[in-house]
Amino acid sequence: MSDVEVMIAPNVIEYPFRRTTGPVIGAFFTALREGFVVGVRGSDGRVIVPPAEYDPVTAEELTEIVEVGDAGEVVSWAWVAESLDGHPFDRPFAFALVKLDGADTPMLHAVDVAAAEQMRTGMRVAARWRPARPGADDEVAEGVRYREGHIADIECFVPEGDR
Amino acid sequence: MGKERVAVVGIGQTHHTAVRGDVSIAGMVREAAQRALDDAQMTWADIDAVVIGKAPDFFEGVMMPELYLADALGAVGKPMFRVHTAGSVGGSTAIVAQDLVASGVHRRVLTVAFEKQSESEAMWALSLPLPFQPPMHAGAGGYFAPHIRAYMQHSGAPDHIGILVALKDRRNALKNPYAHLHEADITFDSVKDSMMLWDPIRFSETCPSSDGACALVLTDEAGGDACAARGGNPAWVHGTAFRSEPTMFAGRNQVNPRGGNDCAADVYRQAGITDPRREIDVVEMYVPFSWFEPMWLENLLFCEEGQGWRLVEDGVTRMDGDLPVNCSGGVLSSNPIGASGMLRFAEAALQVRGHAGEHQIDGARRALGHAYGGGSQFFAMWVVAADKP
């Protein structure tokens, strides 16, 4: 078989999807870009973060946007010993459900600690934000990722004392 | 058909357009569903189950969107079904919903179908490039153009038939406030002079890419009677059928597919129709490229094979003809893909309810809604009427 020429060609399939976020999810992403977190108040008074457009109990439209803290408590977590493409880090880290101060539902994000031993349910963590986009007259730093209205505007959470 | 009679008591749709930049997918779907509920004079709590359909998930790249849409459709804690049959899905979805009522499983079912083409890449999703092979298609038009060529060759249909269909549907759309395209100054020549995209399909003979949703509320006989009692004019379902066949097999007739023929024969038998041309008052058929009107007229047994184009040329399918087709403007004027089939079913029901507004055919009592999908291989149809079956 060694004299057979094997033809190889790349076959990359990708689509440029777009998202229209609407007024509620849009408010969440806009807040992230500005460096804070919002949820929405449900019919039962709970603050849902990230916000839901429609009430999970009554199905009614939800409109009361509520600001919550950018620090909170780890409700549950899983250690990622070997990170994969698309993960927030190329080193071990934790995925965690974080209940932010003022929120009644937890939100999924990454926690940057060196070892699983540093993680525990109930620990306090705080957001590490990307820098705000510079103004029109400011200098733009090479290689820095600025906030753009994306869940990764919070780079990760870290133990509260380390922020 | 099961034992329980089924009525369409609520119909809702969005204003179809190129980009609904003001709403998420959930917000858009919600809008159609809310309008259907309002029409049915119901609230979310009145609904027993939700049936939802859309074209393949990779169009928008949201996998199993029905899960995230449960809140928006009031489906939390209720049975929710997802239907997948490519472009015919809007029709198939309505049929699944009607089966749940006809079988006595549920009394009031909300069914919804949608597509947000502005968030997706339907054309290129249908044109996956493969190494070492020449690119075969550029979207659905590239796939269907040879079928149309074959039809023209076999039937002897002249080139202007497609233009007549496009002109008719786009002019009908001017009477439908929900239609995506409203081309007030369209003419025979403007269609004829529009760019040739996939010979023989011109730009103006091609459906647009739309954002939109459609929803129906279906009930049992008691629900239909209640609707009638308050003057809501329910549409009664007289027959439903689906058929499918593989994309390719030896001897397959892609112009006049067996699946569509069998599906039509089945739905007419259920509805007690022996002469569809005379017994059906108005038709909403799935015509994404103008030439599919004459082709489906034959496939749906409205005339002999090879004669469909003559009905078009004689004006039979115009709003003032004796078999009006796509008074709403059809897929040629609005194409939120997943919703397009349900829109055909909904528009058929609007006609027999007398609720079609400016594009109403006076005295329409019995209507056919038709959808197809894939490579002319998935078919869904229903016959609805003003009277009970």
Brief descriptors of the model:
heterodimer, A: 163 residues, mainly beta, 1 helix, 28% strand, globular, B: 389 residues, alpha/beta, Peroxisomal Thiolase, Chain A, domain 1, 9-stranded mixed sheet, 14 helices
Kindly describe this structure.
The complex is a heterodimer of chains A (163) and B (389). By secondary structure, chain A is mainly β. Chain A is 8% helix and 28% strand. In chain A, the strands form two sheets. Chain A has a five-stranded antiparallel sheet with strand order 6-5-4-7-8, with no helix packed on it. Chain A has a three-stranded antiparallel sheet with strand order 2-1-3, with helices on one face. In chain A, strand 1 and strand 2 (47-48) form a beta hairpin. The longest helix of chain A has 13 residues, at 22-34. Chain A starts with 21 loop residues before the first helix and ends with a strand. The model of chain A has no long low-confidence stretch (mean pLDDT 93). Chain B has 389 residues and is of the alpha/beta class. Chain B has 14 helices and eleven strands. In chain B, the strands form two sheets. Chain B has a nine-stranded mixed sheet. Chain A binds chain B through residues 7, 9-11, 13, 15-25, 52-59, 61, and chain B through 19-27, 30, 44, 58, 60-61, 71-74, 76, 116, 118-121, 124-125, 128-132.
Write the layout of secondary structure elements.
The complex is a heterodimer of chains A (163) and B (389).
Chain A: H1 22-34, E1 37-41, E2 47-48, E3 65-68, E4 71-80, E5 93-100, E6 107-111, E7 124-129, E8 154-159
Antiparallel strand pairs in A: 1-2, 1-3, 4-5, 4-7, 5-6, 7-8
Chain B: E1 7-13, H1 25-40, E2 49-54, H2 65-68, E3 80-83, H3 89-102, E4 108-116, H4 122-125, H5 139-155, H6 160-173, H7 188-192, E5 196-198, E6 201-202, E7 211-219, H8 221-229, E8 235-244, H9 258-271, H10 276-279, E9 282-284, H11 292-299, H12 308-313, H13 330-333, H14 337-353, E10 366-373, E11 378-385
Parallel strand pairs in B: 2-3, 2-4, 9-10
Antiparallel strand pairs in B: 1-7, 1-8, 4-7, 5-6, 8-11, 10-11
Helix pairs in contact in B: 3-14
